[in-house]
Amino acid sequence: MEDVAALVEVSRDRALRRWASSGVDNDSDGTRWVQAQQQGWAAGDRFGFAVLETQPGSVRAQLVGNVVLKKVTSGKPAAEVGYWTAAHARGRGVAARALEALTDWAFDAFEADGLERLELLHQVDNLASCRVAQKSRYDFDTLLPAAPPSFPRDGHLHIRVRERLKSSRLLRTG
Prior knowledge:
- By secondary structure, the protein is of the alpha+beta class.
- The protein contains six helices and six strands; from the N terminus they run H-H-H-E-E-E-H-E-H-E-E-H.
- The longest helix is centred in the N-terminal third of the chain and has 17 residues.
- It is globular.
């Protein structure tokens, strides 16, 4: 809840509003958004993380983004990832690094539940998200038709499959 004011400030960005599925216009919206994240954790089907950055000399970390693992169901081989980056942090690789950390965590945390692949969806004209997907080794899979109102434009589906080759690589090299 201590990030609500920062969330409201970050959400004023027009570019973020264009791509985000929900708007945060004031403290009440911000509180509801944070509570929805908490409910996802409690239900075990949506796991949102604030992406924070500490500046030298600062006592408090600054909100620079968010990553989320959603649609997690035990026994279901796929889940979805999402992210956003604050305007003041764009162009520095924040989203790609946060997505990579989320990806590693998701595959580790939900391996026993059968999680095999992660899906990343973005609108076709969101070129920055496409670059983040590519940098994070999410391969382009297919073009998706628009599904208004939550997905008003055609989109891209990118997929990342859990790597299973680590032990076999060790055997070959070692």
